């Protein structure tokens, strides 16, 4: 740890919020600004209350009025205030002022920081639960480039006062973690919930950047958010950058394809392309307001036991290379995925799935955790204008193509199924590539690990080359065997 961050080691045993704030205050080197707009007014208060803040706090500001806020930080193009862009403008402005107003001769031992947040808490009608952006820009050695941590919080409490209080705790935990736990971002992530009920908030996006975090892959950090129970789903775009789910999904038409994608194959691409063409023909679907998502569940990622981060990154890298948006979720059941989308949009939603996966959702033991069982699950799944695009399979023995018209269901489920089938909720994909029906990811995976040739032909263009370049799915072991 930097010599500028030394302190009382007794603080290391899960310090309280007050102890964390006091340790920051008692460090004569840490010095910075608090900028809190909207309902986020609680972080600086903790540092004032514990004492010793005169050597830590250069300034606190609350540009509560929108006109004052615009005058200070500039107007946003979209006219909104609780956004990541607004937060970045706050950090830029306040850090620039801090450097400008502190004499250079006193900067030789200063560790500058700016903590900013922009928050909207629950409304009076309690229909809008509220959310907020928070970030810190900081340094751990004087006169060095800044690093940055930015996160987004969704509130689950139903009182504005409680939401404000929890945001104050998050802020103290963030500052303390930035200075004293930055060496281990995974631990820093968990410490953000110190003295906070996990049901109180959800951190659904976090990004680390700057020289302290140049080795950090934010996709892996996102994976930890789900693993730690901090959120139910995370998303990143084709470039691999974390994106806020609300930003992508809000009021959009959504087409989602779930799979293991281990690895992504030609049949996965065919499923997507053919279902996307059908989706665009839906009467209420506008291509400009449509998002397509390749989704992997955490249960799939952990199907082999412990979470294999390299395996996850391999799958994600391949999907991103094809230009797709990737979603990792904790939704084992499809109805929970649809319910999640419904939080953001009432537009047309569709799921693309193969026959085998479709048959799984008609198994009653799949819904033992619901008091209403399968009826409740299907009510949640299909109430929001949902459609299922069904990709056929081929019977290995007879060669028969199996689709929605001849699939085999338990007798008790047949009439139940007909209700959705004949109400247009299940749509067959007919223009599929028959030659792809014999492609299965698990078989390709076995060929890769057993050094069996010919697996490359079953993958989209460029995917086999990436698997070899990055030694994915056991390919390195194959080369070692071949060399021996």
Structure summary:
With 484 residues, the protein is of the alpha/beta class. The protein is 37% helix and 20% strand.
Question: What features would you describe in this structure?
Answer:
The protein starts with 16 loop residues before the first helix and ends with a helix. The chain has 3 domains: 3-216, CinA-like (Maf protein); 247-438, Rossmann fold; 441-483, no CATH class. The longest helix has 21 residues, at 160-180. With 484 residues, it is an alpha/beta fold. Helix 1 packs across helix 5 (160-180) and helix 12 packs parallel to helix 14. The strands form 3 sheets. It has an 8-stranded mixed β-sheet with strand order 8-7-11-10-9-12-13-16, with helices on both faces. A 6-stranded mixed β-sheet has the order 2-1-3-4-5-6, with helices on both faces. It has 18 helices and 16 strands.
Our count of domains comes out at: 3
Estimate the strand proportion: 15-25%
Q: CATH class of the largest domain, anyone?
A: Alpha Beta
In total, the number of strands is: 16
Architecture of the largest domain in CATH? Alpha-Beta Complex
Name the poorly predicted regions. Answer: 477-484
Average pLDDT figure: 91
- Please state the overall shape, judged from the principal axes of the Cα atoms: elongated
Helix content: 25-40%
Quickly count the helices.
18
What CATH calls the topology of the largest domain is Maf protein
Radius of gyration, whole Å: 26 Å
């Amino acid at each position: 740890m930097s010599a500028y961050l030394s302190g009382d080691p007794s603080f290391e045993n899960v310090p309280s919020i007050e102890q964390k704030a006091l340790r920051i205050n008692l460090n004569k080197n840490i010095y910075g600004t608090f900028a809190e707009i909207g309902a986020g007014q609680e972080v600086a208060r903790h540092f004032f209350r514990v004492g010793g803040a005169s050597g830590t706090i250069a300034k606190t500001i609350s540009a509560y009025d929108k006109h004052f806020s615009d005058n200070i930080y500039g107007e946003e193009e979209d006219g909104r205030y609780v956004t990541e862009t607004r937060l970045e403008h706050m950090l830029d402005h306040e850090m620039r002022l801090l450097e400008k107003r502190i004499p250079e001769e006193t900067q030789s031992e200063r560790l500058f920081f700016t903590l900013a947040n922009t928050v909207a808490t629950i409304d009076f009608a309690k229909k809008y639960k509220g959310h907020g952006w928070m970030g810190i820009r900081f340094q751990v050695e004087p006169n060095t480039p800044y690093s940055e941590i930015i996160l987004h919080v969704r509130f689950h409490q139903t009182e504005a006062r409680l939401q404000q209080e929890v945001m104050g705790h998050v802020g103290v935990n963030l500052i303390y973690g930035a200075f004293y736990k930055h060496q281990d971002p995974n631990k820093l992530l968990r410490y953000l919930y110190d003295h906070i009920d996990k049901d109180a908030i959800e951190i659904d996006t976090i990004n680390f950047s700057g020289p302290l975090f140049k080795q950090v892959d934010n996709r892996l950090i996102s994976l930890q958010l789900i693993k730690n129970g901090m959120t139910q789903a995370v998303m990143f775009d084709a470039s691999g950058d974390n994106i806020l789910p609300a930003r992508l999904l809000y009021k959009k038409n959504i087409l989602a394809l779930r799979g293991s994608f281990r690895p992504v194959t030609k049949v996965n691409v065919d499923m997507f392309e053919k279902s996307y063409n059908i989706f665009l023909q839906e009467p209420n679907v506008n291509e400009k307001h449509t998002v397509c998502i390749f989704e992997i569940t955490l249960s799939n990622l952990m199907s082999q036991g412990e979470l294999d981060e390299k395996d996850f990154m391999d799958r994600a890298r391949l999907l991103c290379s094809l230009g797709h948006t990737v979603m990792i979720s904790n939704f084992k059941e499809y109805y929970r995925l649809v319910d999640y989308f419904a939080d953001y949009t009432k537009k047309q939603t569709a799921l693309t799935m193969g026959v085998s996966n479709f048959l799984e959702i008609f198994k009653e033991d799949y819904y033992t955790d619901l008091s209403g069982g399968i009826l409740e699950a299907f009510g949640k799944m299909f109430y929001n204008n949902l459609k299922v695009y069904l990709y056929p399979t081929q019977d290995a023995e007879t060669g028969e193509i199996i689709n929605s018209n001849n699939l085999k269901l338990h007798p008790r489920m047949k009439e139940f199924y007909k209700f959705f089938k004949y109400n247009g909720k299940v749509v067959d994909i007919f223009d599929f590539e028959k030659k792809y029906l014999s492609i299965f990811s698990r078989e390709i995976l076995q060929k890769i690990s057993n050094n069996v040739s010919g697996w490359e032909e079953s993958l989209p263009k460029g995917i086999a080359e990436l698997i070899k370049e990055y030694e994915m799915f056991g390919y390195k072991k194959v080369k070692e065997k071949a060399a021996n």
